[in-house]
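Lab meeting prep.
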Amino acid sequence: MSRRAFEITPELMLRAYRAGLFPMAETRASARLYWLDPEQRGVLPLDRFHLPRRLARSVLGGKFTVSADTDFAATLRACAAPGPGREDTWINAEIEALFNALHGSGQAHSVECREAGELVGGLYGVALGGAFFGESMFSRVRDASKVALVHLVARLRLGGYKLLDTQFVTVHLAQFGAEEIPRDAYKRQLIDALELPARWIPSPPEALLRAELTSLAGR
């Protein structure tokens, strides 16, 4: 972990992701950003994604209305806000501004879950080549962030992505098959993924999306 010595721009952020780095702040109120390059990196293998049976029922049952890129700013803002079990977050005002700029240029994306029209869960991250760098997620009701993750995986698989970077592995992510791999192995996967001509699909045809979600449920 190292302190920056220069202004961070959206373009610099993309260069950092391509090199295997990502920024964090110590707290929501912090004015400093740090570059992280952990020895062990969290990844969620897209070809071995595990969808727990109980959650599959929520995904296929249509409990939530799920969309992508319909309200990136609100999703990011919700991820930055304190919530149950987390009194503070690492997303400060500068990170928020940088990611909103990356979304504006088509590099950052969100998946949103709504219930009765209200935003109740979601996630966001950066897409480059065939790699998606997951940044953060939030949930205001049970399963909302998990359903968003399943929909993210479905879209990544449909779009030809090969790497889903989770940065770290949590209990929340481990149930889906997330694992830690050494830094060198991660960067080899990253180099390969960045060369792929993947395509982000925010609104795939309903029948195609349903088929992919059903396939994930049947694994």
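Slide two material, second protein:
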Amino acid sequence: MKQLLIVEDDAGLNQGLCKALKTDDRLLTSCRDLKSAREQLLCGNADLVLLDINLPDGNGMDLLQEIKANTPELPVILLTANDTDMDIVNGLEQGADDYITKPFSLSVLRARVNTQLRKHLAPDKHEPTRIGHFYFDFQNMIFRSGDTCIELSKTEQKLLYLLVENRGRVLARGELIDRIWTDGAEYVDENALSVTIKRLRDKLGTQEYIKTVYGIGYSWVNTNE
């Protein structure tokens, strides 16, 4: 039984979301403010949080940061009327797993909720990856180049994971965008991938490992490990 926590202050929309997302194997818990949402989260039973940003007793972004600090594996989908590019980028960079703007399609919402539940159904328990002088522990979010610890954003971690787990294979730009930024959400500019690649190379010093395959995408080249 999966438990979804819906945090939305509009009573009608809250009720509609519960009705739209209800299935035989789901338990829906709804809250209309941050206080009651925090109380529900203390129970530790939530499998996904659908979170509004503008709430009567504060900003949902504060709750997002608390969730990601305490339970980073818990998926959070922001559902909000804040629809500027800056709002969306900020929400994703703060750790949101997806960002849906109002008004929205219930069918699209259901699909995105299902996608997040599938992604987090069986978290990876793989051992840390060692490649040359690099050490990548995706489970505990520890990344080292030699003896230096490197702090990576959530987006950078996702990109690194895909490249490392598929090393030797060329990953197309479209595939990377689809798998990193909420399964191909329309608002993602392809330039975001180029920027993230550059940041990852600069932070880790992986210029000779992460190769650009012009006109196609990127690859972590095979090396003597």
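Talking points for slide two:
The mean pLDDT is 87.
The chain has two domains: 2-119, 129-220.
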